[in-house]
Specification:
Length: about 130
C-alpha cells in the first residue's frame, strides 16, 4: 500500500526507544511535503515530565530540518493492541499537518493497521487559525 515505507520506518524507529521507566516502546514516522520521511522514538527521562513521545520526536526532527508540512503520520506502540497517539501529540500533529484530513496510521504490525484522519482523532480543535482571527 501507499504507506508501506512509512509503516516500516515507524516500526524500525521503535527499536531505538529509550524507555528505562515505562518499558513501553513507541515508534513513529512522518511523511513530509517533498516525500521525505522522518522517524522517531520515545525518549524518557528520570524527571518523567521531560519525556518526549515518539510522534513528537519524529515531527520535531522534520521541522528542525526545515519540513513544516506533514502529509501522513504512522505510529506503533508496544502491545498487541493498537496504540493511539496521546493528546499532546495530536495537538502537535495539528500544528504541522497539511490539513485536518491527513491520515494517521495506527499500526499493530506490518499487515494490521487502522487509518484515521487527524480530524477524527482530534475534533473541534484549537489551532493557529483561532489565534489569527482574534
Ligand atoms: N508514548 C508515546 O511515545 N506516544 C504516545 O502517543 C503515547 C505515549 C510514550 C511516552 C512514554 O515514554 C511511554 O509511551 C509511556 O507513556
Amino acid at each position: 500500500m501507499k504507506y508501506d515505507v512509512l509503516i516500516e520506518k515507524a516500526i524500525e524507529a521503535r527499536e531505538a526507544a529509550y524507555t528505562p521507566y515505562s518499558h513501553f516502546k513507541v515508534g513513529a514516522a512522518v511523511l513530509t511535503e517533498d516525500g521525505s520521511i522522518y522517524s522517531g522514538c520515545n525518549v524518557e527521562n528520570a524527571s518523567f515530565g521531560a519525556t518526549n513521545c515518539a510522534e513528537r520526536t519524529a515531527i520535531f526532527k522534520a521541522v528542525s530540518e526545515g519540513h513544516r508540512v506533514i502529509k501522513a503520520i504512522a505510529v506503533i506502540g508496544d502491545t498487541k493492541a493498537y496504540t493511539y497517539p496521546c493528546g499532546i501529540c495530536r495537538q502537535v500533529m495539528l500544528e504541522f499537518a497539511e490539513n485536518k484530513d491527513i491520515p494517521v496510521i495506527i499500526i499493530k504490525n506490518k499487515k494490521e493497521f487502522i487509518t484515521k484522519t487527524l480530524d477524527e482523532i482530534i475534533p473541534g480543535s484549537f489551532t493557529k487559525k483561532d489565534l489569527d482571527q482574534a
